[in-house]
Design a protein that fits this description.
The chain is built from 14 helices and 7 strands. The strands form 2 sheets. The chain has a 5-stranded parallel β-sheet. The longest helix has 35 residues.
Length: 340
């Protein structure tokens, strides 16, 4: 071959073949991701996307993942649901306040964002998530003493959820995250130890507990009820600041006679009274309507030795029987439920 001859044709064709292979690989990867995402959305283990996933029919609403990963589940649900009223707080909220019992213009517009063992320091994070939803105009925050006393608890919510980037990553993870892939099967959802089940609006239906369990819970409260930490109230202020511009209600959750007895036996009545006063001062200073509902339900009897009652599941958790009074107090039910 003379030096003036053109290059061989195969060398010229190599680059187009490489590009074609790259496009094919990308298409295959995209197809695989689409199939995985479709499976995750169809099964919908955390009840994020579908009105009634197939597992609801199988378990009756029981979901071990939502019981054990309540933080993850509730935050993701709050980013996906269509609602205008948010109920914030700990397990007292998701056990006691049933959004289905809201009335007037709030009917069907309430989401229960109660999170098990929510700490006061996590309130600003949850508030940021809710504040990112422009359509949410009313926020009801239920406070309990444990939120501002205990320093231990489950792994806290990620602070990144307070940012747009963090929330976007959480949304993406709910479709393509490793946990989402692993959890998209009935064995991960069914078979929990806790009786009862969840509703789509974040409420947990829980049957009454036998004396053995209510006594265990009473013993747990005696171990875990500790002095009030006033320094944690700054987190409540931060949460209220992040929700500025919304219609805000703050209430102190009803407390059973049994739990008041625990506070008295441990010498913490003064701590409890100081917490009540501080919560009232901070809430009103930030323009929120404040309701001290600690004594709501005082006319109902609860003895841990006798098991749950119609009004109380255990020392800390009230049922919708008392929850209806709370909904009345914050204007979501009864004569006050005409505020849009």
């Amino acid at each position: 071959m003379r030096s003036s001859d053109p290059p061989a044709a195969p060398a010229e064709a190599a680059e187009p073949r490489w590009r074609a292979n790259l496009v094919l690989a990308g298409a295959l990867l995209g197809t695989a991701l689409a199939v995985v995402a479709a499976r995750i959305v169809w099964f919908d283990a955390y009840w994020l996307f579908r009105e009634r996933p197939s597992w609801v029919e199988i378990t009756g609403g029981a979901n071990r993942l939502l019981d054990r990963q309540t933080r993850r589940g509730k935050v993701l649900q709050s980013l996906q649901r269509d609602y205008t009223v948010a109920l914030l707080g700990s397990s007292t909220v998701y056990h006691g306040l049933d959004p289905a019992e809201a009335e007037g213009p709030f009917k069907g517009r309430v989401f229960n964002l109660g999170i098990s063992a929510l700490s006061g320091r996590e309130l600003p994070i949850v508030a940021s998530v809710v504040a990112s939803r422009d359509e949410v105009r009313k926020v009801v925050i239920g406070l309990d003493y444990f939120m501002f006393s205990r320093s231990d608890g489950p792994a806290p919510l990620k602070a990144a959820l307070s940012t747009m980037t963090g929330r976007a990553e959480a949304r993406l993870g709910s479709v393509l995250g490793l946990y989402a892939i692993q959890d998209a099967r009935i064995g991960r959802v069914a078979g929990g130890d806790d009786p009862g089940g969840w509703t789509r609006d974040g409420f947990r239906i829980t049957p009454g507990l036998p004396p053995r369990l209510t006594q265990q819970n009473d013993a747990t409260r005696r171990r875990t009820t500790v002095p009030y930490r006033p320094d944690m109230m700054g987190h409540l202020e931060a949460a209220l600041n992040r929700l500025a511009g919304r219609d805000l209600d703050v209430y102190l959750a009803p407390v059973s006679y049994a739990q008041k007895r625990v506070l008295a036996d441990l010498g913490l009545e003064a701590d409890f009274a100081r917490w009540r006063a501080d919560a009232a001062r901070i809430a009103t200073a930030h323009g929120a309507r404040f309701s001290d509902l600690v004594d709501v339900g005082a006319d109902t009897h609860f003895d841990p030795a006798a098991g749950s009652t119609e009004a109380w599941l255990d020392n800390l958790h009230f049922t919708p029987v008392i929850g209806r009074r709370v909904l009345n107090a914050v204007g979501l039910r009864g004569p006050g439920a005409d505020r849009p």
